[in-house]
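Run log, item B.
One chain of 185 residues. Sequence copied directly from the ordering sheet:
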Amino acid sequence: MLDQLTQLVQQFGDQAVVKNNAVPNELNDKVMKETGSSLLSGLQKMASEGKLEQLAGLFQGNNASSSSNPVVKQLIEQVSGNLGQKVGLDSTAANGVAASMIPQILGSLIGKAKNPNEKGFDVADLVKAISGGSGNSNLMDMITKYGGQFGLDQNGDGKVDMQDAMAAANKKGGFGGLLGKLFGK
């Protein structure tokens, strides 16, 4: 998951950071590292604060790439603040970088998570990264409540429960495959 996030930061950072005259060249690497780190820590903070419904909202439509989405707005503010405090960018440059990169990164990240044909990317990795690890009880709450949005609702009844586990047992990969998908193994 961290590799995918780093790749997306590099991809979108070329225009927003490297080719941005407001960002001194000697700060390019620091800005991109801080952007990725602040984005992930911001998502984790929201999960730990119980904002799972808002996070799940990123998976609906194209909300993740919309700067009007409250989650995206909050992450832009956090990343922008960290770029100013930790890297030393002036507020205008920090706001510009964050406002440009965060919607693009989130849109691409969520798009990959929602795409069952995306190779090397598993939504369970995203959920684990956001929740801080598989031992976090918020992870199971998120999977139970929003599992249908993550493609875990095997029987299409709108909830993730034991019937989904039984339906998964009858499919290729079985129940172990479903659990592996949930916990990224």
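Observations after the first pass:
- The radius of gyration is 18 Å.
- The chain has a mean pLDDT of 76.
Flagged for discussion on Thursday.
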